[in-house]
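Marked as duplicate of an earlier ticket. Keeping the data here for the record.
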Amino acid sequence: MIDAPQVEDAPALAHALLAAWLLTYPNRDAGIDEAWIRAHRGDVVTSEGVAQWQEFIKEVERRPAHRFCRVVRQRDEIVGFLCGRRDETVSLGPMYLLPQVQGRSVGRQLMAAFLTWAGDAPIRLWVTAYNERAINFYQLYGFEDTGERHMWRDKLPNLRMARTSAAKQRGDQS
């Protein structure tokens, strides 16, 4: 089931985020292991990290035109989510699905909801350079590598992807 998160979901969201990082980002070549991930992302499950999620969820409720978040529930567990924001530009992320729901069209449903929310606005995101599954997924929705790179915490290689406005992708003359 996909729905909007509630403030009381913040601890589960934080734990799902950390679980996704632990499953997605270990990479011997990059020198990223469980200890490095826990050292750099483990704070997400602390009281401060949970409070940040609570505040974001409140912002989604207060400013739905500017903040977006949907969670995927399997029974009573959060097993995925997609969040985004609209400030000067629309940004997609974070987006994670735990293995038990990957390959079941859940990502497509989340992306459809996000793209409907974003409307015709151009969208940008960061994705880890060696996360080929995510890169391929985003390419299916018209995202392209911009050439911009960022090394998160001097170790995790990220690349910027962007999607032009939906109107331009359809070939509309606006």
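See parent ticket for discussion. The longest strand covers residues 77-86.
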